Amino acid sequence: MIATKGYAAQTKDSGLAPWNFDRREVGPHDVQFDITYCGVCHSDLHQINGEWGGEIFPMVPGHEIVGRVVAVGSEVTRFKVGDLAGTGCMVDSCRNCESCQKGLEQYCLNGNTLTYNSLEQDHKTPTYGGYSNTIVVNEDFVLHISEKLDLAATAPLLCAGITTYSPLRHWKVGKGHKLAVLGLGGLGHMGIKFGVAFGAEVTVLSTSPKKEEDARKLGAHNFIVTSDPAQLKSAMGYFDFILDTVSAEHDYNQYLALLKTDGVHICVGAPPTPSALTAFSLIPGRKSIAGSNIGGIAETQEMLDFCAENNIVSDIELIDIKDIHPAYERMLKGDVRYRFVIDMATLK
Ligand SMILES: [Zn+2]
Ligand SMILES: [Zn+2]
């Protein structure tokens, strides 16, 4: 076994504290990499707090993981010691179902293995995430990371990046399209960057007028304050797509009214409670409301390669792992531009 240091929640609501645990030995198809940076995702906090149910404790969160390879199994051909490597939200899947066969491991019909708070495909061994110094992952779920990009700022691409890249690619958002990005946080700021890179006209919809300056710096062409009825009204029937990154409760009907005929409202943010939706928001205008979850492994690699070619990374604030709790508090208040990333050198 490989002795590993990390930060774990021992129980629901215990918060995080240092914890030593073992990772498996490097198998023939495994890659071990030492973690240099790990992004802080909103879902880390939901899960350590036991908000989603069925949590597995102790829990080491973290699924925006980058580092350098220190060992490879005897059968591994795609990685060698010294390579940069990354792992996102998944570390395995059944590989046989219709979704897996199509490279859509994120929609594995038999249940994929998430990077933490999940079970390996043996259905009994828990997985532990990236708030730790090293990780062992099957090579098929390890991504190549370019040496060209700032490594710390690359980490959030593994969740926030692919979560926004995948739906924009799926719906072929690009030149000639008017894209609204609803909410300007970790996901929203990546949605702007990808929307602009794909050639769409990008408008940020936000409750906070204070975010306009940042939205424009990130490349957005327009900005609408959603709490201003006049501004909302001026955008009725305007957009081809809305990328909805908001995970607080909000009225979908209000935003569907902003779509043109055949427009699609794409949910990547997940409010905790159900929301009322009237069919009359969809029927006139043949509109759709859809969801999207991260992306498959091949698409995640495509996204990372696209980012390397186009010099796209996340806007981050690097933190010491000891400051993870204050960082969570600031994240809850939306007080981060736009992603915290843990410098794992601070894990002693
Ligand atoms: Zn995430
Ligand atoms: Zn599957």
What does this protein look like?
With 348 residues, the protein is of the alpha/beta class. The chain folds into two domains: 2-159 and 295-301 and 313-346, Medium-chain alcohol dehydrogenases, catalytic domain (Quinone Oxidoreductase, Chain A, domain 1); 161-291, Rossmann fold. The protein is built from ten helices and 17 strands. It has helices at 42-48, 98-101, 151-154, 160-170, 186-197, 212-217, 229-234, 252-256, 297-310, 324-332, and strands at residues 2-9, 16-23, 30-39, 65-72, 84-87, 90-92, 113-114, 134-138, 143-144, 178-182, 201-206, 222-225, 239-244, 259-267, 288-291, 316-320, 339-343. Strands 3, 4, 5, 8, 9, 16 and 17 form a seven-stranded mixed beta sheet that branches. Strands 12-11-10-13-14-15 form a six-stranded parallel beta sheet. α4 (160-170) crosses α5. It is globular and about 60 Å long. InterPro entries: ADH-like_C, ADH-like_N, ADH_Zn_CS, CAD-like, ER, GroES-like_sf, NAD(P)-bd_dom_sf. This is Putative zinc-type alcohol dehydrogenase-like protein. Belongs to the zinc-containing alcohol dehydrogenase family.
